Fold this protein.
Amino acid sequence: MTPKVIAICGYIGSGKSQVAAILRQWGYKTVDCDRLARQIADEPEVVRQAAALLGDGYVVNGKLNRPLIRERVFADPKLLDKYQMLFFDKVRARLVELAEQSSDVLFVEIPVLDAFDFPWNEIWCVVSDREKLVERVQKRDGVTAQSVSVTLSWQKKCTSATNTIFNNGDLSALENAVRGALISSGINQSE
């Protein structure tokens, strides 16, 4: 049986990870594309490619210096595209493998929906008011509102959502919104 693969996307701080955590708690299989990318970033081949692209100063003890890289690539759109291309094909390949191993439904938390072509069955977009986004990311990452605004300016709005999950309230409200998305998608609840 081919699994239903559902993308969970949204701006930084929107609550994608919280939605995925709720789904995992309810027994659904989830995949975090950021986590896959971090695993891929540790591969020696990718470290070499990143050093060739950015310079040896962006590698420390054989690992990518992510904060320094983030600062540089977000200041240069062309460099950002080149850097991301080091990861996208590899993430897609791993995602295909994981989907093939799934039997029913697989939820995929993905920050860059158009990073690669994938036959999503559905796209769930998690949305929040901008003030909430900034507040959450500042609290989580210890960064300035300006830093969050720069990141948000690079992110694209999801325009192809099959379900929209609003996340401006508390955890209970978010759980109810996820239940609603499951129902509208015809997925039996596992909880």
User: Anything to note?
Assistant: The longest strand covers residues 4-9.
